[in-house]
Structure to design on (288 residues):
């Protein structure tokens, strides 16, 4: 397939910790189906190290996927941003684009669609939502909940004093946000819950589905299943794997890397998705 800037073929995921990331096999599977000569690696980059890493990149670099703790660190470095990055203040994707004799850094957020598409695949459109955790992914989860139809959202945090940015975002999104301490979870039930905590961090929490159609989207995937996901499923609820999100946000990133537009479908995208899901041990379709 044709793509812009054909001399730019190197890509990688950055973050800390990063050794567990399954982004490399996901992207490799997609580029194999698409017939693209891209290589995709992983690099450990801690907070404060992104500027130096980018400064050391050569002209063959095409883009970067960003995970914690870099999704906000990157913002001052970006020359172009999508409206969603501007709205959320979070970017998980950077593309290097040649404009004349200048290299432009363009940023996008594909995490929101990474949550929205798997939930839509289950046919679940919640009127209310719960988010556990307050990091960069929580902002994307809040925007995703609104896109899915939620008008009331509960946010559970270990430190409610840190809720300010998410409260401001909720106002901009026009959604009612109730901020609660995480130790008030016992005794509550949830129709749609997104846990944005890293792997294992939610294992001691009491997360209880409100009924058989209730969905837990646990963005962690290592180890899997998490104890929280196991208990939710045993209680009769439906569970989405963090790899479902990883796959869908990666598809948005690949679109952005290839065409510059994360909403432009890839050629034979259904086959690309199947290959990506198989590469990380997922079934061909989302089942919950």
């Amino acid at each position: 397939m044709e793509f812009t800037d054909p001399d730019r073929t190197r890509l990688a995921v950055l973050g800390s910790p990063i050794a567990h990331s399954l982004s490399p096999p996901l992207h490799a599977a997609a580029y194999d189906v698409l017939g693209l000569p891209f290589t995709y690696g992983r690099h450990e980059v801690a907070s404060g190290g992104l500027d130096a890493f980018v400064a050391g990149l050569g002209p063959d670099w095409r883009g970067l996927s960003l995970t914690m703790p870099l999704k906000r660190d990157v913002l001052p470095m970006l020359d172009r941003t999508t409206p969603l990055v501007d709205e959320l203040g979070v970017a998980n994707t950077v593309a290097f684009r040649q404009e004349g004799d200048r290299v432009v850094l363009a940023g996008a957020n594909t995490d929101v669609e990474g949550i929205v598409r798997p939930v839509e695949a289950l046919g679940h459109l919640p009127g209310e939502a719960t988010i556990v955790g307050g990091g960069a992914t929580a902002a994307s989860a809040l925007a995703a909940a609104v896109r899915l139809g939620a008008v009331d959202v509960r946010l559970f945090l270990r430190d409610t004093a840190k809720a300010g940015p998410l409260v401001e975002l909720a106002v901009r999104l026009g959604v009612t946000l109730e901020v609660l301490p995480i130790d008030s979870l016992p005794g509550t039930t949830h129709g749609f819950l997104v846990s944005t905590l890293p792997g294992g961090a939610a294992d001691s929490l009491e997360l209880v589905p409100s009924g058989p159609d209730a969905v837990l989207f646990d963005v962690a995937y290592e180890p899997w299943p998490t104890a929280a996901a196991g208990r939710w499923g045993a209680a009769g609820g439906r569970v989405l794997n963090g790899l479902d999100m990883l796959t869908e946000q990666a598809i948005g990133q690949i679109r952005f890397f290839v065409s510059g537009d994360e909403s432009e479908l890839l050629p034979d995208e259904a086959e690309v998705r199947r290959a990506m899901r198989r590469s990380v041990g997922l079934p061909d379709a989302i089942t919950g």
